[in-house]
Amino acid sequence: MVEATTYTLIDGRKISTDIKNEIAQRVAERKQLGKKIPHLAIILIGDDGASQTYVDNKVKACKTVGFHYTMMRFADTISEERLMKHIDHVNNDDDVDGFIVQLPLPDHISVEHITEKIRSDKDVDGFTNHNFGSIISKNPLLMPATPFGVMELLRRYNIETEGKHAVVVGASRLAGAPLSMMLVEQAHATVTICHKYTVNLPNYTRSADILLVAVGKPGLITADMVKEGAVVIDIGTTRVEGTEFAKGWAIKGDVDFKNVAPKASFITPVPGGVGPMTIASLLLNTLRATELRNP
After folding, report:
1. Which of 137, 209, 238, 248 is most buried by a 10 A CB count?
2. Mind listing the pLDDT tens digit for each residue in 54-65?
3. What angle, 0 to 180 degrees and rounded to 10, lies between the N-to-C axes of helices 12-32 and 275-293?
4. Residue 53 confidence (pLDDT)
5. Catalytic one among 11, 20, 58, 209?
6. What average pLDDT does this structure show over 262-283?
7. Active-site residue among 11, 20, 97, 102?
8. CB crowding 30-48: b at 16 or more within 10 Å, else e
9. 11, 97, 123, 125: which one is catalytic?
10. Does 263 qualify as catalytic in the annotation?
11. Coarse DSSP helix, strand, coil percentages of the chain, rounded to the nearest 5 percent
12. Distance in angstroms (rounded) separating the CA atoms of residues 266 and 232
């Protein structure tokens, strides 16, 4: 039986609120000085419920910090060619500082084609090849939002990373791959990346000083896979349905929180951990894009 220890809960909601307050202050200062107010443009394709919720949250966040925003909605029957023309229009609109196309997209539209069509200096999701590659430079442009949020949590909780062994489970382009690069370049950690082909995953996770999981498999990481005192960052979010939940469903992370938490020194909950930081990072990127083009 694991002996209970005192752990620190990493509160992503609080940190994201702190960041929004800081951004709102900087926007207010820009307004007072007569400088350009950040403007975020969002394209939403179709009527997917989850995507609509994500977009609504982004619009609400823009209002909170004082950003201007533009919403563009199109039916899921829009052709890739027509969507490209709309992206060109936004790329060429000097008033727009940040620009996102909400994913997922309909099957007939290439995510890669659309992502690469967005100007890198307006790509506040940090998805373009240019922004992805710039992570390994000394002056990255706009960083992928979710990994950026994770790095902010580590920084703001003063979690020591230099020389520590960080194990990233999950190698996706959206989370695990860029996060591993940021941990090396910015946090000076020693990084191991694990994925679905990794043999004997617990051998790696048990060696982690900092364990970061972004797979989308609820409860994948169990207590016996985590060493005492590890920092555990759960990036996974999966909707699990069941009659035991009041709403008939619940959002679950990749970590068995109840049993892992007593072994951890720091741990993120799901929901309320990394999730809120993604939008906060999107806002930070939009502000940075504005300041780069309009100091």
Report:
1. 209
2. 899 999 999 999
3. 20
4. 87
5. 58
6. 96
7. 102
8. beeeeebebbbbbbbbbeb
9. 125
10. no
11. 40, 20, 40
12. 6
Q: Is residue 2 pLDDT above 50, yes or no?
A: no
Domain ranges of the chain: 34-119, 144-274
Measure Cα distances from 245 to 222, 240, 251, 267 in Å. 21, 9, 10, 23
State the Cα–Cα distance between residues 258 and 223, nearest whole angstrom: 9
Average pLDDT over residues 248-276: 95
Give the CATH fold of the 34-119 domain: Rossmann fold (3.40.50)
Q: What is the CATH number of domain 144-274?
A: 3.40.50.720
Mean pLDDT for the chain overall: 94
The pTM (predicted TM-score) of the whole model is 0.93
Q: Do 34-119 and 144-274 have matching folds?
A: yes
**Does 102 qualify as catalytic in the annotation?**
yes
- Neighbouring-strand partners of residue 221: 255
Instruction: Please state, for a pLDDT cut of 90, what percent of the chain lies above it.
Output: 87
